[in-house]
Amino acid sequence: MSQFFSIHPDNPQARLVSQAVEILNKGGVIIYPTDSGYALGCHLGDKNAMERIQRIRRLDDKHNFTLVCRDLSEIGTYAKLGNSMFRFIKSHTPGAYTFILNATTEVPRRLMHPKRRTIGIRIPDNKIAMAIAETLGEPIMSTTLIMPDEEMPLTDPYDIRDLLEHAVDLVIDGGYCGMDPTTVLNLTDDEVVIVREGAGPTDTF
pLDDT tens-digit profile of 35-49? Predict the structure, then answer.
C-alpha cells in the first residue's frame, strides 16, 4: 500500500518533501507532479526501482528515461554542453522542455540511448518537483505517467492512487498540473532540432 501526500504546489512542506526523498533513497518508486503532468520517479542509481517502473508502464529496454535536474550546473555533470547550447537551455528553463544531449560518463549506461549515448534532461517549472530534486541532491530518474495502451497521461492523483497504490511507494497530490507532454529538443549537434512539439512554446527559437 503506497503512502499519499498532499503537498502544496506553491509552498511545498519541507517535512513531506524530506519524506519523499527518504523513500527515493530507500529504493522506492514515487509519483510526483511536474509542469507537464504527473511522472514516475526513482533514484538514479537504483536498477530495481527502474525495473519496477518499466513493469508498471510495460516499457522495453529501449525506452529513454529522463533526468529531472535541479539546476544548470547539475545538467553539466550528466551532459556535454557547449556555450551556445548552455545559453539556450538557460533561457528556456525552468520549463516544459526535454533536452536530448550527449551523455557524460556520469550517466549509467542503462539509461542512455543504446546507440547514440544520449540522455534526456529537463528542469520542470514545478515547485514540488524542484524541491524534491534539490533535497535529493541529484537528478530524479523519471518518465511520464502514461499507462500501457493509453494515449493520455493520468492527471487526477486520487485516480492514480486507486490504480497504482499497490505498485508504487508514494503518490504525491500536487493538484492539477496539465497533461500536455514536454516539447522535446535535440541539441546534440550544437543546434536546436524539434523532435516533438508539446507544452513548451517553440515560437522563440
Answer: 999 999 999 989 999
List the domain boundaries for the chain.
Answer: 3-196
Q: How do beta strands 79-80 and 3-6 pair?
A: unpaired
132 vs 139: CA distance, rounded Å: 9
Q: Which helix (H) or strand (E) holds 42?
A: strand 37-43
Q: What is the pTM of this model?
A: 0.94
Rounded CA-CA distance 205/14 in Å is 37
52-65 pLDDT per residue, tens: 999 999 998 778 88
Task: Read off the DSSP letter of residue 51.
Answer: H
Cα Rg, the chain, nearest whole Å: 16
Q: Which CATH fold would you assign to the domain 3-196?
A: DHBP synthase (3.90.870)
Residues found in the chain: 205
Q: Burial letters for 33-49: b for 16+ Cβ neighbours within 10 Å, e otherwise?
A: bbbbbbbbbbbbebeeb
Q: How far is CA 25 from the centre of its chain?
A: 16
Residue matched to cell numbers 546534440:
188
d(CA 25, CA 137): 11
**Contact indicator for 174, 32 with CB cutoff of 8 Å:** yes
Identify whether the C-beta of residue 79 lies closer than 8 Å to the C-beta of residue 185. no
Interatomic CA distance for residues 50 and 17, integer angstroms: 21
